[in-house]
Amino acid sequence: MIIQRLDELAAQIDIPLEILQRKTLDSDFKLKVPVHFAQQIEKGNLNDPLLRQILPSIEEAQTAEGFSQDPVGDLNANPTESLLHKYEGRALLITSPQCDIHCRYCFRRHFPYEQAKKRHWQQALEHLAADTSIHEIILSGGDPLTLSEAGLIELLHQLEQIPHLETLRLHSRTPVVAPERANMTNWLVALKASRFNKVLVVHCNHPNELSDETHQTFQHYREAGVTLLNQSVLLKGVNDSADTLKQLSKKLFSQGVLPYYCHLLDRVEGAAHFEVDPPPTWQIFETLRKELPGYLVPKLVREIAGEPYKTPIYENTDT
Predict the structure, then answer these.
(1) 74-312 has which fold?
(2) Among the residues of 224-316, which ranges form H helices?
(3) Predicted confidence band at 64 (pLDDT cuts at 50, 70, 90)?
(4) Could you tell me which residues come within 8 angstroms of residue 212 by beta carbon, excluding any fewer than 6 positions away?
């Protein structure tokens, strides 16, 4: 079940509707949150870090220099509709315009998703088949796990017909925010049987997002031979403390997921209030490096439009 009305959210999290109304604005990027994720929000806590990620805040109306509708240059990197080809050896297919959740910091909140329709897949598949330099296909969106089970299996089989593709990577928030939806039996069977190297990069920003249900879902994917990684975004008021990120890494690892990336905020219009300043960022990651083994410290990166890879961020880097 998906919550799309403020009164439904207010009832779920035990905060009076009138209080939420004073904090929110009417946005084209509407409220959307699965009940499972809403159940992880601390009741009565207006400052809950999970609530902050999904509540359409009046802060989104602020304008800020350097923020744009296409902060990572997606629109300049699509050789065909629905396909992005930014980096050597890999390409990204926008499989679906839908997500199970509307994260307020989403860098594709303004993306023209009319390009991301199934009818565009054939052209994308033809491009992939013709370019033998591409060895990894990334399924993204939106969220690929919002597709029907039959649609996912069909796409998997079509991709398997391209001999130079070796690795299938999925980027999805669904196993975290709506884990029951990601547990598609026939899809998991097809994944297990696939010839591909298989990677699932989940998106989790705070340890409170993880639950018994996410653990079970991750286990199903591991049993299907999928390598599980996590990427998060450093967000003010959500996870901008060393302790929070430390607990996130440890809890992910306990559920079979390795921390992969922590992204600096992509500077998309409407999300400036989430940006963390450089000095506390350096302090956070210095603490993580001291207190965690290296395999539990995610790489701090920023995606810069036009660059040939994600840019590692160090203390002397201009962010």
Answers:
(1) TIM Barrel (3.20.20)
(2) 242-254, 278-291
(3) confident
(4) none
